[in-house]
From TrEMBL:
One of its GO terms (molecular function) is mRNA binding. This is Pentacotripeptide-repeat region of PRORP domain-containing protein. Keywords: Chloroplast, mRNA processing, Plastid, Repeat, Transit peptide, Translation regulation. Belongs to the PPR family. P subfamily. It is found in: Plastid, Chloroplast. It comes from the Eukaryota. It comes from Lactuca virosa. It holds the Pfam family PPR_2. InterPro entries: PPR_rpt, TPR-like_helical_dom_sf.
Amino acid sequence: MNALLLPPPLSTTNRFLRHRNLYQPLPQSLSSSTFHISHSHLRASPSFSSSPFLSEDDTITQDAVVSLYPHRRYDFSPLLQFLSTYNSDSETSDSNSPTSLDQTELRLAESYRVVPGPLWHSLLKFLTSSSTSSFEIAYALVTWLQKHNLCFSYELLYSILIHALGRSKKLYEAFLLSQKQTMTPITYNALIGACARNDELEKAINLMNRMRREGYQSDFVNYSLIIQSLVRSNKIDSVLLEKLYAEMISDAIELDGQLLNDIVLGFAKSGDVDRAMYFLGVIQGKGMNPRTSTVVSLILQLGNLGRAEEAEAIFEEIKEGGVIPRTRAYNAVLKGYVKNGSLKDAESIVSEMEKNGVSPDDHTYSLLIDAYGNVGRWESARIVLKEMESNNVKPNSLVFSRILASYRDRGEWQKTFKVLKEMQKCGVKPDRQFYNVMIDTFGKYNILDHVMATVERMKVDGIEPDTVTMNTLIDCYCKSGDHKKAENLFDEMQQRGCLPCTTTYNIMINSFGQQEKWVDVKHLLGKMQSEGLLPNVVTYTTLIDVYGKSGRYTDAIECLEVMKSAGLKPSLTMYNALINAYAQRGLSNQAANTFRIMTSDGLKPSNLALNALINAFGEDRRDVEAFAVLQYMKENSVKPDVVTYTTLMKALIRVEKFSEVPRVYEEMVSYGCTPDGKARATLRSALRSANRKTSDLITCDTRYIYRLLRM
């Protein structure tokens, strides 16, 4: 065997390392072994490919670095020893040219002259995957190879180093290193990957745009890494994802299985489940199987939206494909039924779990408790708690948080103390989330003494309020009208080092807007953006609502346009707020125009928007148009509710058409709407107004009217 085993080199004074302090002793893990690299092994292992696109699993073990060709081996120990023992005094050297080197270094370089490039790549990958000190030797190796012209694909060598720095979260060093070579597609891709792995998305996207301007095409791996980073950092947005997808199509990027799975997961996490299901169909249409984790995430998001039937359909599909669902998949479907209020289906899912030998976990039980709590079956919820204990699943604070939230939503805040006693009986201590729900419960019903008492108890238990706690407190005082206290809490929050989030700013913008402190509103928006927090849909909805209620319609419309230009899609809630603001002032033309914009944006009108539009026409004494909206509702399968008919009756009263009010009331009853107190009061008001106007009652049977009132 023709092995090159050279003696340890003599000391040299020539400088060839120019990157920080790279002069470290050879690490024990490297010095204890002789390094041999094999070409035959490289061909057998995709990890040793010279491909510029490095995967997360692209690592090399020492055992893998063995034999080149059947009859030839290269020993790199002398070279590594030379690189590790080169001392910093060499910085005084005045030249980097090979002619200035002593003969020992020249002989060392010549001994490796015939080593093929892929072997240098493999050695470099091994060094960068070993340790920090090995990485320093790896950099010295690249510099030495470049100095002696021993390997000509230097861009690949630098991309390997950039890739390793990215994995080690040394992004600054990766950017410094990228500047030592002219940027090529290989180094661009490595740097983009490093940015994405470190969640520096803006830098990654800027680099991709720069690549495109220079005429280079980005790699499909980069898109996967960027989407993964968006999901990981919870910054995923369907609009941004659509832009990335449009770029992929423009760049003719081939969508492989990994990228398609990432796209499905991205759209699911952003809440755009329709697009997620479309791309799931693309995966299946290509004859590929989606990852189980991707499908489960989609099922979970469908469950969150209450689309239980679709969630179960996908669930059944993966079962038919031979996948055995585990607890997380069952919980995803269960959540859909709980959200939908389908108690029987929820119980059926849990029964199926147990039948198939899948053990329910604490999340399963907490969802089932939610289902019982939503219909007021508290004894059944207690039975679930006992079942948890019998199955050795200890109830946690999350379970009791859900029970408390159910009481809160049903208006039974007094049972908060009952939940606390039950927790103590089970040996469960309240955590921060439970206290946050407790504070929100008392705040919702304006019991501010209990709110502050809960905060003090929380601190006694050694739990410091977090951003969610402070948001809840600030919101409580805003809703109670104590805006000064809310401002004090906002200031206190920042003084304690608890950073406000977008939700915090949204609450404070609403508070200042209600007080018509427009300078403070603009100051908050500027402060929010200076802290790197971008306004979201809720921010713009809040602004439009407060501007609209104050009659600042120009500002409201401007917010709508700014939002659209930022790539955000206006919500129904936003349009409802604007239509309602116009309605309050009888500006029916503006309300109707906003309604037209809403429908042109592809949003299906809700009862809330249509009722507001009826109100706008009613306030403007345009009863014919108000009834035209009722006809529109019937023709477009939007069921009128008691608010619809009550608003129409008010419109008739405003134009003094009292005799037509009972007919509307009767239609409401025949349509299946149960009259409430406001509807009955409106009918009585019509009767009184008619009596004051004329000496006779409304031209219909008095007994008939009283019969209507008893409905």
